[in-house]
Amino acid sequence: MNPHLDPTDLGILNLLQENGRLTNKELAYNLNRTISPIFDRRKRLEELGYIKKYVAVLDREKITASMVAFPQIVLNSHSEYALASFQRSVIEFPEVLECYHITGNYDFMLKIIIPDMHAYNTFLRQKIATLENVGNVHSSLVISQAKAEIGLPILL
């Protein structure tokens, strides 16, 4: 835990992860504080980068994308340039929600959202396969999802 965060800061972060639309007045009420210090703390947490942005969490199945896939990719070269080049390319693809450089048998793991298997095949053939240095791709497709949290655990 960061030593610069006290229980009130952590409380603000926890509450905002649950509902980013909370006003400073609502935060103050929930934390048994006054509005002015909560305003100052929230602003400081934003300025220091603890709070990166506020977003609306959408229901992916109600939008268009109903399939989640985790392609795991092996690169042919592992130079700093090759790793950075691959990373720069894949983060530009709108289907890619997350990109991880990982240890083990694969170099990268992506989390992607696509409407169906045809779209996934197109993504692999027209995007991933066209990148230089891609050696092998192993895909895991999600059958069902038991839990999906976007908030980070913050223990008070």
TrEMBL record:
Tell me which PROSITE patterns the record gives: HTH_ASNC_2
SUPFAM superfamilies to which the protein is assigned, alphabetical = Dimeric alpha+beta barrel, Winged helix' DNA-binding domain
One GO biological process this protein is involved in is:
response to amino acid
Q: Which UniProt keywords apply?
A: DNA-binding, Transcription, Transcription regulation
Task: Give the Gene Ontology MF terms in alphabetical order.
Answer: sequence-specific DNA binding
Q: Which InterPro entries match?
A: AsnC-type_HTH_dom, Dimeric_a/b-barrel, Tscrpt_reg_AsnC-like, Tscrpt_reg_AsnC/Lrp_C, WH-like_DNA-bd_sf, WH_DNA-bd_sf
Residues covered by the HTH asnC-type domain: 5-71
One Gene Ontology cellular component: cytosol
Query: SMART domains, from UniProt?
Result: HTH_ASNC
Q: Which Pfam families match?
A: AsnC_trans_reg, HTH_24
Question: Please, which domain of life does this record's source organism belong to?
Answer: Bacteria
Q: Does the keyword Signal apply?
A: no
Put simply, this protein is called: Lrp/AsnC family transcriptional regulator, leucine-responsive regulatory protein
Species the sequence originates in: Pedobacter hartonius
